[in-house]
Amino acid sequence: MTKATRLFLATSLASALLAGTAMAQEGEPIKVGILHSLSGTMAISETTLKDAMLMLIDEQNKKGGLLGRPLEAVVVDPASDWPLFAEKARELIEADGVAAVFGCWTSVSRKSVLPVFEELDSILFYPVQYEGEESQRNVFYTGAAPNQQAIPAVDYLMNESGVERWVLAGTDYVYPRTTNKILEAYLKSKGVADEDIMINYTPFGHSDWQSIVSQIKDFGSQGKKTAVVSTINGDANTPFYKELGNQGISAEDIPVVAFSVGEEEVAGYDTAPLVGHLAAWNYFMSIDTPENDEFIEAWHNFIGDEDRVTNDPMEAHYIGFNMWVKAVEAAGTTDPDAVIDAMVGVAVPNLTGGYSAMMPNHHITKPVFVGELQDDGQFDVVWETPGLVPGDAWSDYLPDSAKLISDWRKPLSCGNFNVETGTCGGSE
Amino acid sequence: MGAAQAYFCDGRGPMTLARLILACFFTLWAAASSAQSFDDLVKALPDGSYTDRAKVIGAITGTGDDRAVDVLEALLDGNLDVLKSNDAVVVVSKKGRDEIATDALSGEDYGAIPSRGSTKIKVNNALRRDLRAAIGTLTLSSANPARRLAAANAAFAAPDPEQLTSLEQALADETDSNVAAAMERAVAATRIADPATATETKLDAIALLGKRGGQSALAVLNPLTGSDDAAIAEAADAAVTHINNQKQLWDLAQNVWFGLSLGSVLLLAAIGLAITFGVMGVINMAHGELVMLGAYTTFMVQDAIRNSAPHLFDWSLLIAAPLAFLVAGAVGVIIERGCVRFLYGRPLETLLATWGVSLILQQAVRTIFGPNNREVGNPSWMSGAFELGQMTITYNRLWILVFALAVFVILLMVMKRTPIGLQMRAVTQNRAMAADMGIRTGWVDAMTFGLGAGIAGLAGVALSQIDNVSPNLGQSYIVDSFMVVVFGGAGNLFGTLAGAFTIGVANKFLEPLTGAVLGKILVLIFIILFIQKRPRGLFAVRGRAVEG
Q1: Which H or E element spans position B81?
Q2: Are A261 and A390 found together in one domain?
Q3: Number of structural domains in chain A
Q4: pTM summary value
Q5: Of chain B's two ends, which shows fewer C-beta atoms within 10 Å, N or C?
Q6: Is the pLDDT at B418 greater than 50, yes or no?
Q7: Complex ipTM
């Protein structure tokens, strides 16, 4: 064992030294890691993000690179296999010496790489909406926290559509469970009674929705306006919407607002039964701003297919990448410690006509949009928050999290500071 | 929508200010529009926000113009566009692959228009509700009974006291008994919604809805149970209890139906495996991928049809079925000849090898078609549902049940009544003796495996209608398929049939009680216990053949 440990230490030391010398050389490329599944179940969502990153890196190089050095993408395939994410992350940081990693989609893959980034002190940009309840020094969360997606969407339904009964339907894993826990607490704080909330979980890839849809129909026919808040993941969505359509439930009767259904997911659907259903995101392809037009055009040119869509996690990578570029320029080095310190406070344009800023809790500010699906597979914005919403790492609606704050600026430098006891929980 | 406007007002930038001014302008303008002609109103439809459009729709309904229904229906269906060339409002319809535009006002035919030549007038959920109600008002006295029925149902879904007199009039004039029943319900719901109705009449209306309303009447009756008027509250309570009691029986029937339908999907997925695993004893982990190939064949067929012969779309599944059988069957024969045949009698190696094959097939499809879902549409006869009493039966599930049973019967016939079936059974029961009798066992092996694979392909055609067509399609069915075959008893087709339907029905009765996740786990535990007790499954094959 000791032999192995020593060998391991020696190699990691050597690679660290190598990486150090590589960085010092003028004109040597700066390596950027891309950690997205290109095979397996998650390839459907993550492959696009890999392409988006390649495009962003390509564009940055056309602008002259970074710190006078070209950027070089290092793409690895963690194959939708969670432990493999940790291995590949280690490979990127130790063997390839990347300056930062952009990657992960599912929460479990992120949880699997966290210890690696902490141990090797590197940087991860995580572009997907997630359940919150986390703030880590080495991770920058550019996707939405629950208060940047779920809660505004519920607000919209409650205030604008007069919804009184709620079905919280989700796939059975950590993101829907945590989000629904937060939403349930939030709805109750708004005076919604227990019997007006129905919570339902289904396994991954659930395809027989008959009984659940008929339950939803029952639940919705009690004389109060009902809506479904869906955290149903990926492939289970198509049969769900099809069943809704077949059983004659239209978006006018019982609208479904989804947090995991965007342009890219809809692209594989027969959209007819989905028209009018809602999605809440921080970006829609249909949003009409010059930045967005430019981005879509660049994307189409890069990918060589006019039919490809853009989506929210792509915008998150756009924001995250530009923030990293700015922070590296400000720090004058790609050294992770310096960049992490320089990141907080960096503001870059988002694609929806405003600026997003990195906050001390490593989450960003974003606008929230609610869109109604049209039959061309695009979402038409029907509501937006009045301004930018700052991402909240620890939900205010869960009693244990409400007292935690996160601030990675010195001298606090803590991801879960308990304001009641005045102590930092440290890494969990 | 007022709040939404307010949000725009404290938004960002000069863009918003312009929008605000525009919105205010249109609000003022729309308020004054009631006196405008139908033509002006239709021309104004594309302008302004959704709120403005709602007002214009209200005004259009008010004009009572003959063309109003067509315009509103086109708007509801998303077929009302504005031509970019001359700003005319047109109704767009499909003729072959071309989009044909007809002027919504004059009826002038503009012929085929380029795909980006027009902008659609958008509607949202609130507008769709308004539109349905408006169309209902306008079509109450239509000559077409189907239209009157739709109008009555729309009036029932959104009771509007102002419409009461016209509804009563329509009911009095109604000759069709079906439509009359729907109108009675609509009148009852409207009377209940009208504060001016006398208590007496309201009680009658409640009693009528309790007797005939079904599940949808609960939406009207439930709020009344909390009414201040004790008589009304009591009557509503009684009606709700009556409906709920009736519903319980129907729920039972509905669960059985759901179970049969799930069972039919399981049967389809498993029946090919009943051949390869059940009859031949090959642990074929690539079975799911053969199903997936069938689904992709369906996609290819539909794609070809969309591009070259759209009118054949309703036939796409029938065209795809034999092709899917051939494609999956051919791949099956290749797998058998190229890999499985070297591994007979070595189950562990077969398992690993076929698992490898499944990964290869998955990644191959991912490379060729991309990782994203492919769109497979439902032909019109596979969409929608019909009501049987208080049960909703969806057409796609019904046809899949029919299809599964048909495949089962055909397979049974092939196995029992044809020479190739006889040879298959002979080879699997006693290979040496079959060979002695002059049967080319190698060829029969390949054909048997091909048959199982081909049937997996057929399953793929059906599954493409209810699930995603993605490279991962097969994975979600492989475990279930093995479960069904093992539970039913390997080697016996009837076992597979009974196993599939038992698991399906058990699952659907557990699901409402325990949730989908726990329900699945309980079924699995039950099967494990059952297999402990009867290792050969429900219908065990007995005799010497089993030992060999």
Answers
A1: strand B80-83
A2: yes
A3: 2
A4: 0.81
A5: C
A6: yes
A7: 0.78
